[in-house]
Amino acid sequence: MKLRLKLGSRRLSVVLPQTTAQSSLQSVRQHITESGLARGTCELSLNGTDALEETRSLAELGIVSGDLLHVLCRDENDDQADLPSHVLARDNFQPSPHQEENLPQEKEGDMKMQRSSDETTMSEPECQLMPDTMSHYQDFCQSLLRLVPEKDTSLPHLTQTATLCTALHSLMLDAGFTPVENGHLLNDTSAKWSYNTPVNDEIRVHLACLKMGHLLSVHGMAKIKEEKVTVSLSLQVSTHVGRDTKTGLWILLKPAELAVVFKDQVTHRLLTNIRTGI
Q1: Fewest C-beta atoms under 10 Å: which of 34, 77, 87, 197?
Q2: Which residues lie in Basic and acidic residues bias regions (predicted)?
Q3: Three-class secondary structure of residue 274 per DSSP
């Protein structure tokens, strides 16, 4: 599972290979402290103020891959603004260009020297760090590059619009939504799927896509306690889907960019509204 962390003024992305939706929040906190990211006693929060119950599972708390967790340290001075360079090196953390520009010159040099000296001896950490950028989604997006297997003759080749719609459906699955049987529709101009949410099995979410000229109009809808919640997004079809010159199939051109936009504008907003509503 991939999670984003906010430690004081820092933002990081972590990969927790052994963590699943059924893992407890306590196990996540232990990974964070054992990796040296947080010193002393700390707690995890979704809103930056209220600590979450550690005995509950991530699924019970509605936490899914890609969510942002605030690390709250009881020591006011321990805001993790300056993590030790050996911790950064050990966990294979590489600051983004903007972060490196803000580092003092001497600390930046020390960090680079320490990182290079440890690279040959460090073991694979349980908690792997990555820059908090679009590369966070690259591994998943690679599986979306070709949505119809070249040798699968039993499936019709998807159209350009249907390829984009199928990619959005895959991103919903990656966010933890479970498709409802017989709750889908896919053709050349429109698509619709229904899902159970990772937050509450009783809440049904619908994703509807409709082609309007060169645009694909995307709507995510949920009904929470008799109140309807809707989020919307418009995508330029030709920007995200193009022909593979070798196979002639439609493929995603910018999978990482699509994943970031859809996650921010649709899945995260839906989950936030659901959590607030219940």
Answers
A1: 77
A2: 98-118
A3: helix
